[in-house]
Amino acid sequence: LEDGSLSSLYELVLPGVVSIGTDLGQGSGFIFDSQGHVVTNLHVVQGSSTVEVAFSSGFKAYGTVIGSDADADIAVIQVDAPAEQIHPLAIGDSNSLQVGQSVVAIGNPFGLNGTMTLGIISGLGRTQPAHESPGGGFFSTADVIQTDAAINPGNSGGPLFNLNGEVVGVNQSIRTTNVDATTGNAVNSGVGFSV
After folding, report:
1. Checking phi first, is residue 8 left (phi over 0); if not, alpha (psi -120 to 50) or beta?
2. What pLDDT does 176 receive?
3. What DSSP character marks residue 6?
4. Lowest mean pLDDT across 63-67, 96-100, 168-172
5. CA–CA separation, 100 vs 52, rounded Å?
6. Active-site residue identified among 19, 94, 122, 156
7. Catalytic pick among 19, 37, 43, 148
8. Of the listed 73, 148, 173, 194, which one is catalytic?
9. Cα–Cα distance, 86 to 17 (Å, whole number)
10. Percentage of the chain modeled with pLDDT above 70
């Protein structure tokens, strides 16, 4: 694995990665198709009245949440943007992932747009803690990918790539015992999760 190939992967996929700002916080997402559908985590946009999508070019547009799946913690945002801003990312097969395989996360940790981190698949088939569904009852997000690529607050909803530049997961959260005393934010400790 050469650094040059990571640089070219970054240049290839960055136009398809977006940062998402809401009245409640920030996160990341990626362009799914040529119709301007953006995929992110539901928890990034849940309860927000406005969703602003910022592209790597600097272009910004408001988006509307048009669909979500609480069990998978996934939401779809419709963005009205000119065609030259829409760069859909290739979708890979997460079922073919193997522990030890290199992966790359790109997102907006702590508001640092376009941050790239490298790691490996640390585990497969993990479950994430249960959340309450609107109809009552608790569900856990199953079949979650564990990675040691650094995932921090603001990375949520951003893509996890294989080294072919295909999206194989949506970066969801970190499991940590480290909490920043000043902000109360969790601090990355090398155990990240992607849907």
Report:
1. alpha
2. 47
3. H
4. 168-172
5. 36
6. 156
7. 43
8. 73
9. 10
10. 79
Distances (CA, A) of 98 to 54, 89, 151, 168: 32, 21, 19, 11
120-161 confidence digits (pLDDT tens): 999 888 776 655 444 544 445 557 888 888 888 888 899 999
Name the amino acid, one letter, at 72: A
- Is 43 known to be catalytic? yes
User: Among this protein's residues, is 73 annotated catalytic?
Assistant: yes
CA gyration radius, the chain: 16
* pLDDT band per the 50, 70, 90 thresholds, residue 173: low
Given this model, what pLDDT does residue 133 score? 47
CA distances in angstroms from 17 to 53, 106, 128, listed in the order given: 10, 7, 24
Q: How far apart are CA 183 and CA 149, in angstroms?
A: 22
Whose tokens are 């990626």? That residue is: 30
| Strand stretches in the chain, DSSP E | 17-22, 26-31, 37-41, 51-54, 60-69, 74-79, 102-107, 115-126, 131-132, 138-139, 144-147, 159-161, 167-174, 192-194
Active-site residue flag, 156: yes
Is residue 147 within 8 A of residue 119, CB to CB? The reply is yes
Comparing CA positions, the residue from 162, 194, 159 lying closest to residue 18 is 159
